[in-house]
Amino acid sequence: MAGARIEHLVTSGTFSLDGGTWDVDNNVWIVGDDHEVIVIDAAHDADAIAEAVGARRLSAIICTHAHNDHIDAAPALAERTGAEIWLHPDDLPLWKQTHPDRLPDHWLADGQVIGAAGADLTVLHTPGHAPGAVCLYDPGLGTVFTGDTLFAGGPGATGRSYSHFPTIIDSIRDRLLALPPDTVVRTGHGDSSTIGAEAPHLEEWIARGH
Length: 210
Known about the structure:
The chain is α/β, with parallel strands linked by helices. It has helices at 46-53, 68-71, 74-81, 92-98, 165-176, 195-198, 202-208, and strands at residues 5-17, 20-32, 36-40, 57-62, 84-87, 106-107, 113-116, 119-125, 134-138, 143-147, 150-151, 154-155, 184-187, 193-194. The chain has one domain (5-208): Metallo-beta-lactamase, Chain A (4-Layer Sandwich). Strand 2 (20-32) and strand 3 (36-40) form a beta hairpin. Helix 1 (46-53) crosses helix 3 (74-81).
């Protein structure tokens, strides 16, 4: 793991779905070293993200899912840096709501490993919040980037189109809570947590239904 590190940027904008719009702050994660990085979720502000990347090569923009607040800056950032956009194909209908004229460059697949600068991100397909939602697990960094699948305090929202509560529970139980307890959970919004801190609460989440 020579030199691979995680940088964190918060950008602000809006999330729109099903006719409603909400103000949101999004976590943008930058993983890599002094020469090359990957951006996870290009949210809202391509200029701010490009500034954080600086002179380094941006090798990939990975979308944890295709809700507009996680992908709205992705094409502009790709155009500016030459990076390619990765998305799970099951989220293409959501992607097209925001970017009807620009397809992602590559499709993510469960179990695929995307590497840059000593980081190795394993793609975990974790549907529920969105059909093509993925989490990105790097055992070397001891972290999982969960997008809007798992937060500090419970699952991502499942009350809107393309989402399903029993599916997100299965994803969290089978894919995320199986990771080592000390794995840091870096989320799409808000504070980080650990797998060990969240795992004991699964039955509470099921009982409350969200």
